[in-house]
Amino acid sequence: VKFPIFCALGSTEKKLFREHNIKIATYHALGSVKLAIAWEQWQSQNKNTRDISFISHYHPELFSDPFLIFKKIESCQRQLFQSCCAFAKSRKLNLTVIAKMKGPSSEVDAERSYYETLADGFPLQFITSSEGDNEFNSYFTGFESRLVVSVGSTLGFELLSSGTKVLFGATGVVDFVNS
Questions:
Q1: Nearest C-alpha neighbor of 33 from the set 139, 164, 160
Q2: Could you give the C-alpha distances from 40 to 27, 44, 86, 95, 159, in angstroms and in order?
Q3: Are residues 76 and 171 in contact, defined by beta-carbon separation less than 8 angstroms?
Q4: Rounded distance, CA 78 to CA 61, Å?
Q5: Which one, of 165, 135, 164, 158, lies nearest residue 35 by Cα?
Q6: Per-residue tens of pLDDT for the chain, all 179 residues
Protein backbone atom coordinates (compact mmCIF):
# COMPACT_ATOMS: atom_id res chain seq x y z
CA VAL A 1 0.00 0.00 0.00
CA LYS A 2 1.28 3.48 -0.88
CA PHE A 3 0.03 6.90 0.21
CA PRO A 4 1.36 10.10 -1.37
CA ILE A 5 0.74 12.26 1.72
CA PHE A 6 -0.42 11.43 5.24
CA CYS A 7 -1.16 13.92 8.04
CA ALA A 8 -1.53 12.79 11.65
CA LEU A 9 -1.46 14.22 15.16
CA GLY A 10 1.94 12.67 15.89
CA SER A 11 4.47 10.07 14.83
CA THR A 12 2.81 7.00 16.39
CA GLU A 13 1.16 6.13 13.08
CA LYS A 14 4.51 6.33 11.30
CA LYS A 15 5.80 3.41 13.35
CA LEU A 16 2.62 1.43 12.68
CA PHE A 17 2.96 2.03 8.94
CA ARG A 18 6.59 0.89 9.02
CA GLU A 19 5.60 -2.33 10.87
CA HIS A 20 2.96 -3.11 8.22
CA ASN A 21 5.14 -2.12 5.27
CA ILE A 22 2.89 0.77 4.25
CA LYS A 23 4.80 3.37 2.25
CA ILE A 24 4.20 7.09 2.77
CA ALA A 25 5.88 9.55 0.41
CA THR A 26 5.37 12.52 2.74
CA TYR A 27 4.43 12.21 6.41
CA HIS A 28 3.39 15.27 8.42
CA ALA A 29 3.12 15.00 12.22
CA LEU A 30 0.91 17.96 12.99
CA GLY A 31 -0.12 17.73 16.65
CA SER A 32 -1.36 20.80 18.47
CA VAL A 33 0.77 23.70 19.58
CA LYS A 34 -0.45 23.16 23.12
CA LEU A 35 0.58 19.48 23.00
CA ALA A 36 4.07 20.45 21.81
CA ILE A 37 4.48 23.07 24.54
CA ALA A 38 3.23 20.67 27.23
CA TRP A 39 5.55 17.90 25.99
CA GLU A 40 8.54 20.23 26.07
CA GLN A 41 7.73 21.47 29.60
CA TRP A 42 7.02 17.94 30.87
CA GLN A 43 10.47 16.74 29.79
CA SER A 44 12.10 18.88 32.48
CA GLN A 45 9.67 18.06 35.32
CA ASN A 46 9.71 15.46 38.06
CA LYS A 47 7.45 12.73 36.78
CA ASN A 48 4.75 10.93 38.73
CA THR A 49 3.35 7.60 37.68
CA ARG A 50 -0.39 7.15 37.47
CA ASP A 51 -2.14 3.89 36.72
CA ILE A 52 -5.35 4.94 34.96
CA SER A 53 -6.51 8.41 34.00
CA PHE A 54 -10.06 9.02 32.79
CA ILE A 55 -10.65 12.04 30.54
CA SER A 56 -13.89 13.67 31.58
CA HIS A 57 -16.51 14.50 29.01
CA TYR A 58 -18.63 16.17 31.69
CA HIS A 59 -20.65 19.21 30.75
CA PRO A 60 -23.78 20.62 32.43
CA GLU A 61 -25.72 20.29 29.15
CA LEU A 62 -25.43 16.51 29.42
CA PHE A 63 -28.06 16.69 32.16
CA SER A 64 -30.28 19.54 31.06
CA ASP A 65 -30.51 19.24 27.28
CA PRO A 66 -33.48 17.21 26.00
CA PHE A 67 -31.60 15.78 22.99
CA LEU A 68 -31.09 12.02 22.99
CA ILE A 69 -27.45 12.34 21.92
CA PHE A 70 -26.54 14.05 25.22
CA LYS A 71 -28.27 11.30 27.18
CA LYS A 72 -26.29 8.69 25.23
CA ILE A 73 -22.99 10.52 25.78
CA GLU A 74 -23.63 10.75 29.53
CA SER A 75 -24.71 7.11 29.70
CA CYS A 76 -21.61 5.95 27.82
CA GLN A 77 -19.36 8.11 30.01
CA ARG A 78 -21.02 6.86 33.21
CA GLN A 79 -20.73 3.18 32.25
CA LEU A 80 -17.15 3.56 31.04
CA PHE A 81 -16.10 5.41 34.21
CA GLN A 82 -17.79 2.89 36.50
CA SER A 83 -16.04 0.08 34.61
CA CYS A 84 -12.73 1.89 35.16
CA CYS A 85 -13.52 2.15 38.88
CA ALA A 86 -14.33 -1.56 39.12
CA PHE A 87 -11.18 -2.50 37.20
CA ALA A 88 -8.95 -0.21 39.28
CA LYS A 89 -10.49 -1.43 42.54
CA SER A 90 -10.09 -5.11 41.63
CA ARG A 91 -6.40 -4.59 40.82
CA LYS A 92 -5.58 -2.03 43.51
CA LEU A 93 -4.74 0.65 40.95
CA ASN A 94 -5.09 4.40 41.33
CA LEU A 95 -7.58 6.30 39.21
CA THR A 96 -7.32 9.94 38.19
CA VAL A 97 -10.03 12.06 36.60
CA ILE A 98 -8.79 14.69 34.16
CA ALA A 99 -11.47 17.34 34.58
CA LYS A 100 -13.09 19.07 31.63
CA MET A 101 -14.53 22.10 33.42
CA LYS A 102 -12.22 25.09 33.70
CA GLY A 103 -14.82 27.73 34.51
CA PRO A 104 -16.30 28.90 37.79
CA SER A 105 -15.52 26.81 40.85
CA SER A 106 -19.20 25.82 41.08
CA GLU A 107 -18.89 23.99 37.73
CA VAL A 108 -15.65 22.28 38.77
CA ASP A 109 -17.28 21.30 42.10
CA ALA A 110 -20.30 19.86 40.25
CA GLU A 111 -18.01 17.82 37.99
CA ARG A 112 -16.01 16.52 40.96
CA SER A 113 -19.23 15.61 42.77
CA TYR A 114 -20.53 13.76 39.68
CA TYR A 115 -17.44 11.52 39.58
CA GLU A 116 -17.24 11.01 43.34
CA THR A 117 -20.87 9.85 43.30
CA LEU A 118 -20.18 7.45 40.44
CA ALA A 119 -17.03 6.17 42.17
CA ASP A 120 -19.14 5.15 45.17
CA GLY A 121 -16.37 5.60 47.73
CA PHE A 122 -13.45 4.52 45.52
CA PRO A 123 -10.69 7.13 46.03
CA LEU A 124 -10.02 9.42 43.08
CA GLN A 125 -7.45 12.00 42.19
CA PHE A 126 -9.04 14.96 40.42
CA ILE A 127 -6.88 17.09 38.11
CA THR A 128 -8.01 20.44 36.73
CA SER A 129 -6.45 22.68 34.12
CA SER A 130 -7.02 26.39 33.79
CA GLU A 131 -5.18 29.35 32.36
CA GLY A 132 -1.98 30.16 34.22
CA ASP A 133 0.33 27.87 36.16
CA ASN A 134 -1.65 24.66 35.69
CA GLU A 135 -2.74 25.18 32.08
CA PHE A 136 -1.03 21.95 30.93
CA ASN A 137 -2.05 19.70 33.84
CA SER A 138 -4.31 17.59 31.64
CA TYR A 139 -1.42 16.85 29.27
CA PHE A 140 1.05 16.18 32.10
CA THR A 141 -1.41 13.80 33.76
CA GLY A 142 -1.89 11.93 30.49
CA PHE A 143 1.87 11.66 29.88
CA GLU A 144 2.30 10.21 33.39
CA SER A 145 -0.43 7.60 33.00
CA ARG A 146 0.06 3.94 32.20
CA LEU A 147 -3.38 4.02 30.54
CA VAL A 148 -5.73 6.85 29.58
CA VAL A 149 -9.43 6.13 29.05
CA SER A 150 -11.61 8.48 27.01
CA VAL A 151 -15.10 8.50 25.59
CA GLY A 152 -13.58 10.17 22.53
CA SER A 153 -11.97 13.51 23.39
CA THR A 154 -9.44 15.45 21.35
CA LEU A 155 -7.07 15.25 24.32
CA GLY A 156 -7.23 11.45 24.07
CA PHE A 157 -6.23 11.57 20.41
CA GLU A 158 -3.42 14.02 21.16
CA LEU A 159 -2.09 11.77 23.93
CA LEU A 160 -2.31 8.76 21.60
CA SER A 161 -0.21 10.67 19.06
CA SER A 162 2.43 11.25 21.75
CA GLY A 163 2.74 7.50 22.36
CA THR A 164 0.49 7.27 25.42
CA LYS A 165 -1.72 4.18 25.64
CA VAL A 166 -5.30 5.37 25.19
CA LEU A 167 -8.50 3.33 25.29
CA PHE A 168 -11.45 4.98 23.53
CA GLY A 169 -14.85 3.92 24.82
CA ALA A 170 -17.33 5.66 22.53
CA THR A 171 -19.34 3.25 20.46
CA GLY A 172 -22.46 3.10 18.37
CA VAL A 173 -23.38 -0.23 19.98
CA VAL A 174 -25.85 0.75 22.67
CA ASP A 175 -25.19 -2.22 24.98
CA PHE A 176 -21.49 -2.59 24.22
CA VAL A 177 -20.27 -2.14 27.80
CA ASN A 178 -22.63 -4.81 29.13
CA SER A 179 -22.21 -7.34 26.31
A1: 139
A2: 22, 7, 34, 25, 14
A3: yes
A4: 15
A5: 158
A6: 777 776 666 666 777 788 888 888 887 766 677 787 888 888 887 777 899 999 999 988 877 767 777 888 888 899 999 999 999 999 999 999 999 887 778 888 999 999 999 999 999 999 988 766 688 899 999 999 999 999 988 899 889 888 899 999 876 555 555 55
DSSP string, 134-177: TTTHHHHHHHHEEEEEESS-HHHHHHHHTT--EEE---S-TTTT
In one-letter notation, the amino acid at residue 163 is G
Chain centroid, CA 68 distance in Å: 23
Contacts of 32 (CB under 8 A, 6+ apart): 9, 158
Task: Give, rounded to a whole angstrom, the gap between the first and last alpha carbons of the chain.
Answer: 35
Report how far Cα 98 is from the mean position of its chain's Cα atoms: 7
With DSSP H G I counted as helix, E B as strand and the rest as coil, what are the percentages for the chain, rounded to 5? 45, 20, 35
For residue 80, the SS3 value is helix
Residues sharing a CB contact under 8 Å with residue 179, sequence separation 6 or more, in sequence order? 173
Whole-angstrom distance, CA of residue 112 vs CA of residue 44: 29
- Identify the CA nearest to 97 among candidates 105, 80, 106: 80
